Predict the structure of ATP-binding protein.
Amino acid sequence: MENDYVIKIRKEWDIVTARNAGRDISSRLDFDPINKAKLITAISELARNIHQHARQGEIRIEIIRERMKNGVKVIAIDEGPGIENINKALEVGYSTRGGLGFGIPGVKKLMDEFSIDSKVGIGTIVTFIKWQITRNIY
């Protein structure tokens, strides 16, 4: 579809490419500045996770339309080591690499819909949606 992006994450610069794709697609949907920043931050965080933990993967970004609303759906896929304990990974402060542990829990908090599936030794798929807020003009 012409509204879709697929960004291969192989090197650090690809994180910037993914952020820019999120910025472009949220601008086309006329996201307000706060929700645009939330979307771009979430995309950046997952792209960075792919780069640091799996070394390669991809970020898929697409416009979705459902009933009377528009949104952006992002799917982050990697073939990395997987996450042993998803519940633990969703706790703020938990990190396997000495980071602050805000990454995945932060993405979940910023988005309207969020799911994660991970299998040790196979990889991880994170899917999230940010819906466009309809602004009333009075």
